[in-house]
Specification:
Layout lengths: L12 E3 L5 E3 L7 E6 L6 H12 L1 H6 L2 E7 L3 H11 L4 E4 L4 H5 L3 E6 L2 E6 L2 E5 L5 E5 L7 H12 L2
Parallel strand pairs: 3-4, 4-5
Antiparallel strand pairs: 1-2, 3-8, 6-7, 8-9
Length: 156
């Protein structure tokens, strides 16, 4: 399945930090900012999560939910949410099923070492469940503001 702007966003079912199953379809009728990130408690991922936290109210006012997904286990998400007071959902994708659906599970290189991991990416999904915007290979600085601006200008 190829992910494409204008098509329905691929649905998935993953667990939240409480072990409850959550699917993308649960949020039909709301705008969604779905972001994939490599790892809890790392500098870039923490900055990104805190930026989403700081703008959470602005997204909520636009009837938009924020959902973060990484391959980290439930316990790690719990600690990350607690430590940084994150008011949005983080979902567990240990088997990287959602990451593969969204084509963000990629071969990465770091210090000459190759490994599979998440390519930091963000997707905006409208109230009907259609993918309307994507950012791949996201640079953290200023990204959340850019996503908020997109939602304000295109999904009200």
């Amino acid at each position: 399945m190829t992910i494409e702007i204008g098509n329905l966003a691929p649905d998935f079912e993953l667990k939240d930090p409480n072990g409850e199953k959550v699917s993308l379809a649960d949020f039909r009728g709301k705008n969604i900012v779905l972001y994939f990130y490599p790892k809890d408690m790392t500098p870039g991922c923490t900055t990104q999560a805190c930026d989403f936290r700081d703008y959470h109210q602005s997204f909520s006012e636009l009837d938009c939910v924020i959902i973060g997904i990484s391959p980290d286990p439930q316990e790690k998400h719990e600690k990350f949410i607690e430590k940084y007071n994150l008011p949005f959902l983080l979902l567990v994708d240990e088997e990287h099923k959602a990451a593969e659906m969204y084509e963000v599970w990629k071969l990465k290189k770091n210090f000459g070492k190759e490994y599979m991991g998440i390519e930091r990416s963000t997707f905006v999904i409208d109230k009907e469940g259609k993918l309307v915007k994507e950012w791949r290979k996201v640079k953290v600085k200023g990204h959340v503001e850019e996503a908020l601006q997109y939602v304000k200008e295109n999904l009200i």
